[in-house]
Amino acid sequence: xxxxxxxxxxxxxxxxxxxxxxxxxxxxxxxxxxxxxxxxxxxxxxxxxxxxxxxxxxxxxxxxxxxxxxxxxxxxxxxxxxxxxxxxxxxxxxxxxxxxxxxxxxxxxxxxxxxxxxxxxxxxxxxxxxxxxxxxxxxxxxxxxxxx
Length: 148
What we know:
Layout: E1 2-3, E2 6-17, E3 21-44, E4 48-72, E5 75-83, E6 90-104, E7 107-118, H1 128-131, E8 134-144
Antiparallel strand pairs: 1-3, 2-3, 3-4, 4-5, 4-6, 6-7, 7-8
Protein backbone atom coordinates (compact mmCIF):
# COMPACT_ATOMS: atom_id res chain seq x y z
CA UNK A 1 0.00 0.00 0.00
CA UNK A 2 1.44 3.41 -0.90
CA UNK A 3 0.32 7.00 -0.52
CA UNK A 4 1.81 10.47 -0.50
CA UNK A 5 1.18 14.00 -1.70
CA UNK A 6 1.06 15.18 -5.32
CA UNK A 7 1.44 18.74 -6.56
CA UNK A 8 0.18 19.42 -10.09
CA UNK A 9 0.33 22.53 -12.26
CA UNK A 10 -2.13 22.62 -15.17
CA UNK A 11 -1.18 25.38 -17.59
CA UNK A 12 -2.73 26.22 -20.95
CA UNK A 13 -2.74 29.02 -23.52
CA UNK A 14 -5.45 30.09 -25.97
CA UNK A 15 -5.19 32.54 -28.87
CA UNK A 16 -8.29 33.68 -30.72
CA UNK A 17 -9.09 36.36 -33.29
CA UNK A 18 -7.57 37.59 -36.54
CA UNK A 19 -3.97 38.43 -37.42
CA UNK A 20 -4.14 42.05 -36.20
CA UNK A 21 -6.92 41.85 -33.60
CA UNK A 22 -6.79 39.00 -31.12
CA UNK A 23 -6.49 38.00 -27.50
CA UNK A 24 -4.22 35.58 -25.71
CA UNK A 25 -5.38 33.87 -22.51
CA UNK A 26 -3.14 31.93 -20.14
CA UNK A 27 -4.73 29.71 -17.51
CA UNK A 28 -2.78 28.23 -14.61
CA UNK A 29 -4.25 25.92 -11.95
CA UNK A 30 -2.39 24.58 -8.91
CA UNK A 31 -3.67 21.31 -7.38
CA UNK A 32 -2.72 19.23 -4.34
CA UNK A 33 -3.59 15.54 -4.41
CA UNK A 34 -3.48 12.40 -2.32
CA UNK A 35 -2.84 9.12 -4.15
CA UNK A 36 -3.65 5.68 -2.76
CA UNK A 37 -2.17 2.71 -4.59
CA UNK A 38 -1.70 -1.01 -4.12
CA UNK A 39 1.66 -2.35 -5.26
CA UNK A 40 2.49 -5.95 -6.17
CA UNK A 41 6.14 -6.99 -6.28
CA UNK A 42 6.79 -9.10 -9.38
CA UNK A 43 10.51 -9.65 -8.74
CA UNK A 44 13.01 -8.30 -6.22
CA UNK A 45 16.55 -8.73 -4.97
CA UNK A 46 18.56 -6.69 -2.42
CA UNK A 47 18.87 -3.59 -4.65
CA UNK A 48 16.19 -3.77 -7.38
CA UNK A 49 12.47 -4.46 -7.38
CA UNK A 50 10.02 -4.61 -10.28
CA UNK A 51 6.35 -4.10 -9.43
CA UNK A 52 2.83 -3.40 -10.68
CA UNK A 53 0.71 -0.65 -9.16
CA UNK A 54 -2.95 0.36 -9.36
CA UNK A 55 -5.06 2.84 -7.45
CA UNK A 56 -6.62 6.25 -7.41
CA UNK A 57 -5.95 9.93 -6.80
CA UNK A 58 -8.11 12.75 -5.48
CA UNK A 59 -7.00 16.35 -6.15
CA UNK A 60 -8.16 19.71 -4.82
CA UNK A 61 -7.54 23.00 -6.60
CA UNK A 62 -5.71 25.39 -4.26
CA UNK A 63 -5.32 28.39 -6.59
CA UNK A 64 -5.78 29.47 -10.17
CA UNK A 65 -5.28 32.44 -12.45
CA UNK A 66 -6.56 33.48 -15.88
CA UNK A 67 -4.57 36.26 -17.59
CA UNK A 68 -5.91 37.72 -20.85
CA UNK A 69 -4.06 40.18 -23.08
CA UNK A 70 -5.88 42.04 -25.87
CA UNK A 71 -3.95 42.94 -29.01
CA UNK A 72 -5.32 45.60 -31.40
CA UNK A 73 -3.49 46.38 -34.67
CA UNK A 74 -0.62 44.15 -33.47
CA UNK A 75 -0.07 46.30 -30.35
CA UNK A 76 -0.87 45.28 -26.77
CA UNK A 77 -3.79 47.39 -25.54
CA UNK A 78 -5.10 46.00 -22.28
CA UNK A 79 -4.74 42.99 -20.08
CA UNK A 80 -6.86 41.45 -17.39
CA UNK A 81 -6.08 39.02 -14.59
CA UNK A 82 -8.76 37.01 -12.82
CA UNK A 83 -8.50 34.50 -10.01
CA UNK A 84 -10.23 31.24 -10.83
CA UNK A 85 -10.89 28.16 -8.77
CA UNK A 86 -12.47 24.76 -9.05
CA UNK A 87 -14.60 23.80 -6.08
CA UNK A 88 -15.05 20.23 -7.29
CA UNK A 89 -12.60 17.49 -6.44
CA UNK A 90 -10.79 15.81 -9.35
CA UNK A 91 -10.88 12.00 -9.12
CA UNK A 92 -8.79 9.63 -11.20
CA UNK A 93 -7.66 6.02 -11.40
CA UNK A 94 -4.24 4.84 -12.50
CA UNK A 95 -2.11 1.84 -13.25
CA UNK A 96 1.64 1.57 -13.74
CA UNK A 97 4.68 -0.65 -13.83
CA UNK A 98 7.77 0.37 -11.93
CA UNK A 99 11.31 -0.30 -10.97
CA UNK A 100 12.95 0.78 -7.73
CA UNK A 101 16.61 0.88 -6.77
CA UNK A 102 17.19 0.67 -3.00
CA UNK A 103 19.70 3.21 -1.71
CA UNK A 104 19.15 2.55 1.99
CA UNK A 105 16.93 -0.09 3.64
CA UNK A 106 14.13 2.48 4.04
CA UNK A 107 14.79 4.64 0.94
CA UNK A 108 14.90 4.07 -2.80
CA UNK A 109 14.62 5.88 -6.11
CA UNK A 110 11.92 4.78 -8.52
CA UNK A 111 10.57 5.33 -12.01
CA UNK A 112 7.02 4.41 -13.08
CA UNK A 113 5.56 4.70 -16.56
CA UNK A 114 1.78 4.45 -16.34
CA UNK A 115 -1.67 5.38 -17.52
CA UNK A 116 -4.34 7.47 -15.77
CA UNK A 117 -8.01 8.17 -16.39
CA UNK A 118 -9.58 11.38 -15.02
CA UNK A 119 -13.31 11.40 -14.34
CA UNK A 120 -15.45 14.42 -15.22
CA UNK A 121 -15.83 16.68 -12.19
CA UNK A 122 -18.67 18.80 -13.62
CA UNK A 123 -16.64 22.03 -13.67
CA UNK A 124 -17.10 24.58 -16.44
CA UNK A 125 -13.38 25.40 -16.40
CA UNK A 126 -11.57 23.67 -19.26
CA UNK A 127 -8.53 21.55 -18.37
CA UNK A 128 -6.54 18.84 -20.10
CA UNK A 129 -8.28 16.32 -17.84
CA UNK A 130 -11.63 17.35 -19.32
CA UNK A 131 -10.41 17.49 -22.92
CA UNK A 132 -8.31 14.30 -22.80
CA UNK A 133 -9.20 12.20 -19.75
CA UNK A 134 -6.88 9.30 -20.67
CA UNK A 135 -3.23 10.20 -20.06
CA UNK A 136 0.14 8.51 -20.21
CA UNK A 137 2.47 9.61 -17.45
CA UNK A 138 5.93 9.08 -16.06
CA UNK A 139 6.47 9.32 -12.31
CA UNK A 140 9.85 9.27 -10.60
CA UNK A 141 11.27 10.24 -7.27
CA UNK A 142 12.33 9.09 -3.83
CA UNK A 143 10.35 6.49 -1.93
CA UNK A 144 10.51 6.04 1.84
CA UNK A 145 9.38 2.71 3.27
CA UNK A 146 8.24 1.98 6.80
CA UNK A 147 7.82 -1.34 8.54
CA UNK A 148 10.05 -3.54 6.37
